[in-house]
Amino acid sequence: MQASGYPAAAAHGQASTPVQVSVILPVHDAELWLDECLGSVLQQDFEGSMELSIFNDASKDKSMTIIEKWKEKLEVSGILVVIGGHDSPSPRGVGYSKNQAIAQSSGSYLCFLDSDDVMMPQRVRLQHAAAVRHPTSIIGCQVRREPPNSTERYTRWINQLAPDQLLTQVFTSNGPTVIMPTWFCSRAWFSHVGPFDEGGRGVPEDLLFFHEHLRKGGGLVRVDQILLLYRYHPGAATHSVLETTIWTHRVRFLEEWALPHWATFTIWNAGRQGRRLYRSLTAGSRCKVVAFCDVDENKIKKGFYCYEDSQERPKPRVPVLHFRAAQPPFVICVKLDLTGGAFEDNLRSLNLQEGRDFLHFS
């Protein structure tokens, strides 16, 4: 598959040796970071065959000049380089660019890299080894955030989730528990799950792929070493996705993936987020909500939440209980790591099992 604009160009002799790993690099106006990013590809200590597949999504800056400069350095070191792209007036988006970069590549494994991030030298080697052991899993890794203090809670969550929480915390507002910039998987598994949604700006293509991956029985594995410098800046593509869009996808996946296993459940948080979740559920899922629970005495004293916008008559009145009087399972709408440990202590005191007795939707 070739993109409109200009054809993919590959290093001479590419077909002679089967490629083990293709680094997938979509690029759009990335001149500020490309030198560091491409330098990190060159520094990989992986001893197998590797190629870099770049797709330039209508960059208007000096990205292509930088790419051409690095192409020779990479090829001299034995890394094959494939470059595709288009020069249309507008970019087609991250999902399209990733799909194109994958289509023009040939490796048995795919290592995803964002143009503003930097790989540690051992990334490809360690994630390839994990992917060989787990052929139907997405392999991630721990990250170092740049700037260091930009998203401290989120970075802790990325790096410290326990192995079972990679599956039980897939409904939170943080998104995929194995974050997209760290993904590594087999081409065969990607082809089974994908491709990425190509809706363009405002579409959470990583979240949609992640959900489809889970639907098809895919696993999640994190290499517990920092293998990526993960950059935070206002221009990052993730900022183009509306919170309401993410919320809708999260609620629908919760209803599809988790709620069918429970006959009834309690929403932990009688405040704004808990009520918002209740209102966002389908009528069938709302009927399963037997109570809200909280620690706020004012909410508990009121005794119930009335869903005023309901078309039902009489309008639903859902009890509000103290959390110790409520019955699991719980869908928890309390933000983690924000209450000085008070919420976490309350939850631990109930001796519940995550996944079976509660899920986080915070």
Can you describe this structure?
This protein has 362 residues and is of the alpha/beta class. The protein has helices at 34-42, 63-76, 94-103, 123-133, 152-160, 165-168, 187-193, 205-215, 243-257, 272-280, 283-286, 297-302, 342-348; strands spanning 6-10, 21-27, 50-57, 80-86, 109-112, 118-119, 137-146, 184-186, 219-231, 265-268, 289-294, 304-306, 317-322, 330-332, 358-360. Strands 1-4-3-2-5-8 form a six-stranded mixed β-sheet, sandwiched between helices. The protein has a six-stranded mixed β-sheet with strand order 12-13-11-10-14-15. α1 (34-42) links the parallel β2 and β3. α1 (34-42) packs parallel to α2 (63-76) and α8 (205-215) runs parallel beside α9. It is elongated and about 70 Å long. The chain starts with 5 loop residues before the first strand and ends with a strand. Mean pLDDT is 93; it is low at 11-15.
Quick structural summary:
By secondary structure, the protein is an alpha/beta fold.
Topology (SSEs and partners):
Elements: E1 6-10, E2 21-27, H1 34-42, E3 50-57, H2 63-76, E4 80-86, H3 94-103, E5 109-112, E6 118-119, H4 123-133, E7 137-146, H5 152-160, H6 165-168, E8 184-186, H7 187-193, H8 205-215, E9 219-231, H9 243-257, E10 265-268, H10 272-280, H11 283-286, E11 289-294, H12 297-302, E12 304-306, E13 317-322, E14 330-332, H13 342-348, E15 358-360
Parallel strand pairs: 2-3, 2-5, 3-4, 7-9, 10-11, 10-14, 11-13, 14-15
Antiparallel strand pairs: 1-4, 5-8, 6-9, 12-13
